[in-house]
Known about the structure:
Blueprint: H1 3-8, E1 12-18, E2 27-36, E3 44-53, H2 84-112, H3 123-131, H4 135-138, H5 147-151, H6 195-199, E4 215-218, E5 225-226, E6 233-237, E7 246-249, E8 258-263, E9 273-280, E10 287-293, E11 306-309, E12 315-317, E13 342-346, E14 349-358, E15 364-376, E16 394-407
Antiparallel strand pairs: 1-4, 2-3, 5-6, 6-7, 8-9, 9-14, 10-12, 10-15, 11-14, 13-14, 15-16
Organism: Odocoileus virginianus (White-tailed deer)
Keywords: Acetylation, Coiled coil, Cytoplasm, Cytoskeleton, Isopeptide bond, Phosphoprotein, Ubl conjugation
Protein name: Dynactin subunit 4
Amino acid sequence: MPSAEAKLKKNRCANCFDCPGCMHTLSTRATSISTQLPDDPAKTTMKKAYYLACGFCRWTSRDVGMADKSVASGGWQEPENPHTQRMNKLIEYYQQLAQKEKVERDRKKLARRRNYMPLAFSQHTIHVVDKYGLGTRLQRPRAGTTISTLAGLSLKEGEDQKEIKIEPAQAVDEVEPLPEDYYTRPVNLTEVTTLQQRLLQPDFQPVCASQLYPRHKHLLIKRSLRCRKCEHNLSKPEFNPTSIKFKIQMVAVNYIPEVRIMSIPNLRYMKESQVLLTLTNPVENLTHVTLLECEEGDPDNINSTAKVAVPPKELVLAGKDAAAEYDELAEPQDFQDDPDIIAFRKANKVGIFIKVTPQREEGEVTVCFKMKHDFKNLATPIRPMEETDQGTEVIWLTQHVELSLGPLLP
């Protein structure tokens, strides 16, 4: 939604709710209830009713006595804050106070500028100067400011009479005593709210779980991201607030192959073990990857505690295809994989073996290696491609990879 509408709704959605217990998104459930016919009370008919429910902690809107609705969206009962009238009064008071302070500041600025006025500063002279176009010569240049604007810096007529007055808060000498069984009755922790649940509802701060009401979900924003060095746009969403697409999506994680640990054997000191890793291709074209061991004296290779042996051959990753995993009739590509290196291959993901030999007797096992891969900039070029160009230029990039394989077994 537009920013003005979001500000009016206090940056919250009117139809979506968060669970007050576990903070997950609530879903609308439908059920059938029997109701009496208005014409014949002796007969009943089935009618649909909707309520809110959480799929994680099993909280429902019926737990706090919220009535079911006949429609699936909107119109849910919300608790009334007993201090709403007092808070609205304070907001109006401080808004009026801020307006008065702004008027006083502008009047002081205007008083310092009267030395530049050749005539007596009155409503008549201001009208004459502004009418014949002399105002721009007599005042100092200031964008968006006219003499008539400066002269009108006063509160509206009758606003002084409508000044909002608030009653100061009164300190109470007598405090309501605690119940006699407050220190002796057993506490049921399932019925008491946590500190996080109370702070998420600062206007009520419920003590019991039966006082938890659903909260309107916060709106999510789409923001642009620039490179810190060259200020190039890395991520830029569409201007339309209802669109989830991005005009520019140049974040590195969308182009660099992803390395993950799939299985780790029992690691022991000075014993070679085989670790299974997965490489995932995030782009739609083929990516060639080569794993290299770190050289001696490499400044990045300071946390390594084990020797690693990576596959000597170049690895080919299939392009990403969102519809491939749902197409059961698709024929797999033949990459002629070596079974000693490639454990499995599925769509744009491939499993590979690396051999690790811990070099320390205790502590965490950490391995480091280099990943070299090709990169094709598929973005639209600024200038049209000439006939002599051979197409998209391929760039080889090298990334430093550091994996923590867990503790060493005795």
